[in-house]
Design a protein that fits this description.
The complex is a heterodimer of chains A (168) and B (539). Chain A is mainly α and 168 residues long. Chain A has eight helices and no strands. Chain B contains 23 helices and seven strands. The chains are: A mainly alpha (168), B mainly alpha (539).
C-alpha cells in the first residue's frame, strides 16, 4: 500500500509529495487524505471477492474529482491505477517468473484493468460535470438577466386553459 | 494488440518519477481552465490605464511595449520607496516554509509555485538581481534572476492564481503578507496593460455606472422593486425602500451581486425586510443608485484604482448629506474600508460616528471610517432584544458558517455573524478548527478570479473549503453554507455542486428576512426562495 501511494504521489512535485504524504490532518491535506483513503479501499476491493466494476466507482470518486481539476492529461490522471501491477510485481521478488505464468496472476491483472476502466469512467464523469457546471453558470446568468428585464415569458404563470371546454 | 507483451521485470523497472527541474528552469504553462481571459483594450482605455490592447495569453506574442522592462523596473523602484512594507517583505523572508502548505491553491494543486513563499520569490528574485550586491554578482546561485519575457509570463500566471486571502500571512513568523506582494505584482502587470477581463471590465463599469455589473440607475431601482414584489408575495407586506434620498440619516451600500445574482438576491430581500421592520422604530435609511456597489475590484488592480472606486461611496454620502454608511454582506469591500480607506480617502470628517438609532449604541470601532457592517448593526439589535422573530422558519436549514477571508482576517469580524445565525436558526454546526475563523479557507475565487473560464483553478483552490463542508455535511447533515460575502455567494454554489452536492449557500440576512415577524404579515408558508417552510409542505 505504501509503495503504491508513493508511486501515485510521485506524479506531483517533491514539495507537494512532502505535504500529501506526511501531513496527517485531513483538513490541512485533503488531497493526500482523499487519495490514501481511495487507494486503501481499492486495494481491499482488489484482494477481496467483490465485483470490481460495480464497487470501484464509489471508491474512485473522491480521487478522480481531485485529479480532474489538477494538471493531468486523462491518461496521467488515471494511470496511477496501473501502477499497482508494478508494485505487486516488485513485492513478488524472486517468485516473479514463476507467478507470471499462473492463471491467478492473469486474473489479478484483469481486476486491475477493470478498476482502471472504472477509473476512466469516473474521471470522465467528473470532467463532464465540470463542463455542465460551467454551462449552467452562463445559462443562469443570462436567463435571470432576461427575466428581470421582462424579456422572457414564464409559462408556469400563464393559466392553463387545456381543461376548459372548447367552444366549437 | 501490442506486438509484444512486456515482461514483468521490465514493467517493474520503469521509473515513474517525472523529471525534476529547478523552479527557475520550469516555465509557467498557461492552459485552458487555469487562466482568466485577458483584459480588452476598451475597459482599460476608459480608465485611462496604460497600454490597453487586445491580446491573448495563449499567444506567444503579448504585444508588449518596446521598453516594457524599463517600465516594470521603474514601477518596482517607485513602489519600493512608496511602500515600506514591500521593501521589508522583499528583504526579510528567510524561506522557513511556514507558509508553504497553507495556501489553498497549493493544497489543492501541489504546484510549488502556488506556495506563498515561492510565489513571492517570483518577484523577489528580480528584486535581488536589481537591488542586492549578492544578486548582481552571483545571480542564480543566490536566487536572483533577470527580468525577461518568461519571467513576466510566470508573474502573470501566478499572481492571478492568488486570491489575496492572506491565510499564509497568519502563519508567517515575520508577518509577511503575500497578498500585498501579489497586489504589487498585479500593479506592475497593469503598467503593461496585463490585467484580466474579469477585473478590468467590472472596474470600468463601476467607474462609469457605479457598480461592477454596469447596472444603470433605473435598472438598479427596478431590480429592488422586483424584490419588493417578491417579498410581498411571501409575507403579504410591501416594503418601501427609498433611493438617493437627500437628508436620510444612513446610506446603505451593498455589493451589486446581491441585487443581481442568486442566491445573493435573497440576502438583498433580507436587507429590505429588516429596514422595513425598523422603519417604524426610527430607522431612516436610503439606497443609492449611483454608489450602487460595495465591492471594489480596483483593489485587485492598483492602489490608485482602489482609491478611486472607494471614494465614490464617500462622495455619495456627502452629496446625500447622510450621517454614516452601513455596508452590506461583502468581502473585500470590508478589507478596503478597514485597512486602506482611512489613509486613502479618510478620515471621513464630513460624516458622524455611527450610532444605532434604535439601541443608541455608538460604534467607536468605525469612528474614523464612519461605516459599519450590517452584521454589526443587526447583532446589536438582537443583543438589545429589538427584533421579534420566529427562528423555526429557518428549520429547513442545517447550517455551517464560512468565514469569508476579508471580513474575518481583514477586519476581525468573527462573532457577529455567528451570533445572528444562532439567534435565527436552530441547527448550526461549526466546521473543524483550522478551517474557520482566522484560519478560514478561501472560496478559491476571490480577488477577481470568479470567472467562468478558470473553473478548474477555482475548484482546486476551493477544495480545502469544500472538504471541511463535506465533513459537517456527512457528520451533522449540514445542508446550508452561510457566508457574508457576495463573491462567496456566487462562487460557492458551483463549488458545492462539484465537491459536496446537496449543500446550498445563503447569506446571513436571508435568514433574518425569513425569521423576522412583520406587522400585518400573512401566515408565512414559504421562505424567501419560495420553498415551503418546515411543516408547511403540501401533502
Amino acid at each position: 500500500m505504501d509503495q503504491w501511494q508513493d508511486r501515485v504521489l510521485a506524479t506531483y512535485s517533491p514539495d507537494a509529495y512532502r505535504l500529501f504524504k506526511h501531513k496527517n490532518d485531513p483538513f490541512a491535506n485533503p488531497v493526500g487524505s482523499k487519495l490514501k483513503k481511495g487507494l486503501e479501499g481499492l486495494l481491499d476491493l482488489l484482494l477481496g471477492e467483490g465485483d470490481v466494476r460495480a464497487k470501484a466507482p464509489e471508491l474512485l470518486e473522491e480521487s478522480m474529482k481531485v485529479r480532474a481539476v489538477q494538471d493531468f492529461s486523462p491518461s496521467d490522471a488515471v494511470g496511477f491505477l496501473f501502477e499497482l501491477k508494478g508494485v505487486i510485481r516488485e513485492q513478488a521478488g524472486k517468485d516473479l517468473p514463476k507467478l507470471d505464468e499462473s492463471p491467478e496472476w492473469f486474473a489479478l491483472d484483469s481486476r486491475i484493468d477493470a478498476i482502471a476502466l472504472a477509473g476512466f469512467d469516473v474521471f470522465m464523469e467528473c470532467r463532464e460535470k465540470l463542463n455542465r457546471i460551467r454551462v449552467n453558470e452562463v445559462r443562469n446568468l443570462s436567463y435571470k438577466a432576461m427575466k428581470r428585464a421582462n424579456l422572457v415569458c414564464d409559462l408556469s404563470e400563464i393559466p392553463d386553459d387545456s381543461d376548459e371546454e372548447t367552444v366549437n | 494488440m501490442a506486438d509484444e507483451v512486456p515482461k514483468v521485470e521490465k514493467m517493474a523497472a520503469i521509473d515513474h518519477t517525472p523529471p525534476k527541474t529547478g523552479w527557475m528552469d520550469t516555465p509557467a504553462v498557461i492552459r485552458p481552465g487555469m487562466y482568466c481571459y485577458s483584459a480588452k483594450a476598451k475597459p482599460l482605455n476608459i480608465l485611462s490605464m496604460p497600454h490597453g490592447r487586445d491580446w491573448d495569453p495563449i499567444d506567444e506574442d503579448w504585444h508588449l511595449p518596446e521598453n516594457w522592462i524599463e517600465i516594470v523596473l521603474d514601477g518596482l523602484h517607485e513602489r519600493l520607496h512608496k511602500f515600506r512594507s514591500l521593501q521589508l517583505f522583499m528583504d526579510v523572508c528567510v524561506r522557513c516554509g511556514a507558509c508553504a502548505d497553507k495556501c489553498h491553491f497549493f493544497i489543492g494543486s501541489g504546484d510549488p509555485k502556488n506556495m506563498p513563499v515561492l510565489r513571492a520569490e517570483l518577484l523577489r528574485s528580480v528584486y535581488r538581481k536589481e537591488y542586492t550586491l549578492a544578486g548582481k554578482l552571483l545571480g542564480k546561485m543566490v536566487g536572483a534572476r533577470k527580468l525577461d519575457e518568461r519571467v513576466l509570463k510566470e508573474w502573470w500566471t501566478y499572481f492571478f492564481q492568488c486570491t489575496e486571502c492572506r491565510r499564509c500571512s497568519v502563519f508567517c513568523p515575520y508577518g509577511i503578507d503575500t497578498a500585498e506582494i501579489t497586489i504589487i505584482g498585479r500593479e506592475l502587470l497593469n503598467l503593461l496593460g496585463l490585467n484580466i477581463d474579469w477585473i478590468a471590465t467590472p472596474v470600468s463599469n463601476c467607474y462609469r455606472t457605479g457598480n461592477h455589473l454596469g447596472i444603470q440607475p433605473h435598472a438598479f431601482k427596478d431590480m429592488l422593486e422586483f424584490f419588493v414584489d417578491e417579498i410581498e408575495d411571501v409575507t403579504g407586506v410591501r416594503c418601501n425602500p427609498s433611493f438617493n434620498r437627500k437628508g436620510a440619516e444612513i446610506l446603505f451600500i451593498t455589493p451589486s451581486g446581491d441585487v443581481f445574482a442568486d442566491p445573493g438576491t435573497y440576502t438583498a430581500m433580507g436587507y429590505l425586510i429588516l429596514f422595513h421592520y425598523l422603519e417604524s422604530m426610527g430607522l431612516d435609511i436610503t439606497w443609492s443608485t449611483y454608489a450602487s456597489e460595495g465591492g471594489n475590484f480596483g483593489f485587485f488592480t492598483s492602489h490608485e484604482m482602489m482609491k478611486r472606486l472607494n471614494a465614490k461611496m464617500y462622495m455619495e454620502a456627502k452629496r446625500l448629506g447622510v450621517k454614516y454608511i452601513i455596508g452590506g454582506e461583502c468581502g473585500h469591500m470590508w478589507r478596503v474600508i478597514h485597512q486602506y480607506m482611512d489613509t486613502m480617502n479618510g478620515p471621513a470628517d464630513h460624516l458622524e460616528v455611527p450610532k444605532n438609532p434604535i439601541t443608541g449604541t455608538v460604534f467607536q470601532n468605525a469612528a474614523s471610517t464612519k461605516m459599519i457592517h450590517i452584521t454589526e448593526f443587526t447583532a446589536d439589535l438582537l443583543k438589545h432584544d429589538k427584533l421579534k422573530f420566529d427562528k423555526s422558519r429557518n428549520d429547513n436549514y442545517n447550517l455551517t458558517f464560512h468565514d469569508s477571508c476579508n471580513p474575518s482576517r481583514g477586519m476581525g469580524l468573527l462573532e457577529e455573524p455567528r451570533y445572528i445565525i444562532k439567534k435565527m436558526c436552530n441547527h448550526f454546526h461549526e466546521m473543524p478548527e483550522g478551517t474557520i475563523r482566522e484560519q478560514t479557507f478561501c472560496c478559491g475565487s476571490g480577488s477577481g478570479l470568479n470567472a467562468g473560464e478558470d473553473l478548474e483553478l477555482r475548484f482546486r483552490g476551493g477544495m480545502p473549503r469544500a472538504n471541511a463542508v463535506k465533513y459537517v455535511h456527512e457528520k451533522h447533515g449540514v445542508n446550508t453554507l452561510a457566508c457574508v460575502c457576495a463573491i462567496d455567494r456566487a462562487a460557492l454554489p458551483p463549488l458545492m455542486d462539484y465537491w459536496v452536492p446537496g449543500v446550498q449557500v445563503a447569506g446571513i440576512h436571508e435568514l433574518v428576512g425569513n425569521a423576522l415577524i412583520l406587522d400585518g404579515e400573512k401566515e408565512r408558508t414559504e421562505d424567501l426562495r419560495f420553498e415551503p417552510l418546515a411543516g408547511m409542505e403540501e401533502e
